[in-house]
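#lab-general

N.A. 3:47 PM
ok so I finally got the sequence cleaned up, no stray characters, all 154 residues accounted for. can someone with queue access submit it? mine expired

B.Y. 3:52 PM
send it over

N.A. 3:53 PM
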Amino acid sequence: MSKVVENYIIMEEAGKGKYSTVHKGRHITTGEVVAVKIIKLDAISDNPEIQDMISEELQALRAVESPYIVKHLRYLRTTNNMYEVYEFYEGGDLSVLIQTEKCLPTHKALKLFKDLVKAIKVLYENSIIHRDIQPENIFLQQDRAVLGDFGNCK
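B.Y. 4:20 PM
back already:
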């Protein structure tokens, strides 16, 4: 898939959720690589609970800024879809690292754990509860862990 929405080229699929798909994207002018979450409006139009979850996710991500929490860049909307644009993390997620390496060296596991604690501390300071911390929602950027997927947050 290669589609253009505003200033973003939406490319290959990088992940899939119940109500959305995440694609790798690129800003046309700057060349910045991003993650684009696509939510089909007809899939959520009759579900106010899902609409509230999306609203809370965006509200939470706008409230915090930390190198340990996924960075929300833009919100776009067309007739058929909502697009949430996020920073893209080349290292994938923790579940892939666990499958690949089977057993992480202690120093590496502790570093990732410290990063996760820093992310949770920022959330605590902003009265946000993530409610879905799992390896698939912990992204890796070089040797840094970044907490993402705030779809279930309160």
